[in-house]
Amino acid sequence: MKALVTGITGQIGSYLAEHLIDNDIEVHGTIRRHSVVETQNHRIDHLQDKIKTHYADLTDVSSLEKVLEETKPDLIFNLGALSHVKIGGEQPNYCLQSNTIGVLNLIEAMKSIVPKARMSQSSSSEMFGNSKVENGYQNEDTPMNPVSVYGISKLASYHLMKHYRSAHNMFLCNSICFNNESSRRGTNFVTNKIVTGALSIKLGLQDKLYLGNLKSRRDWSHSQDIAEAMLKIIKHDKPDDFVIASGQTRSVQEFCHLIFSLLGMDYNDHVEIDPKFYRPEELHYLQGDSSKARKELNWTPKFSFMDLVSEMINNNKLALENGITINTKALV
Hints:
Radius of gyration: 19 Å
Number of helices: 11
Strand content: 15-25%
Shape: globular
Strand order of the largest sheet: 3-2-1-4-5-6-11
Number of strands: 13
Largest sheet: 7 strands, parallel
Structural class: alpha/beta
């Protein structure tokens, strides 16, 4: 069996590649050209002798068709996207081209070249936006009212998957992923920005950490758990859509307090609010109900929240002690 993973150099993509290899599945991945290949591929450097990568871009139909013709995959995991909400708002046209038209390009190429393959789309909890949640959770039936260009782009691709599944009898499924983190998370995302910032302050490398809305609440899982769920979803007996989440919600403020406390500091002494990090329209609350996935797929998270936090602190501490410094004030 062969799998194609777009966005294989991302945190979920790299963990998914490892998980596929462990399941004796031949792994191919697409990457976009980057002028500094050392930083682009660092998450998959340890897999270079076990996977094959191909240059392609979701916005370039011909490159997708070429890869599908060459690999003829049985499983397709689309993790390629412009994945940062704030940058998506600053580059709205590209966000929609990559996250929506890109998915359409991939579906159409799949329909022509490997119509019997199975495809999983990495959907996002950002699609829910600020929908009213009466029981405190968002699930597969919760109305979706996104409050960002990124969320809108993901919702459009979510519906493209559902439409082609019904109209063309294709095996297309949506993995509705809530926030997920790991030691492989990019430093311009708030969790790793907080961890690296707190560690830098602890080591005397900086004095302050600048953040936006501390009241926002998110449901954080480990990316390895998300990757495992994606494989279960695509191997399910029928194509369907599943929420993947821990079921726990915490505020950015609570995350700050925990990280700084574990390092023996008070975040109030070091964190300052910078309005430039606020969203134009804030998404206030996310807490996922993954009971459907737990029941139908027999999926349960293997990592606790404290497992995740400990890993992020330990790995970032090692990086900083080895001289890898980050200017967290400049991060979006």
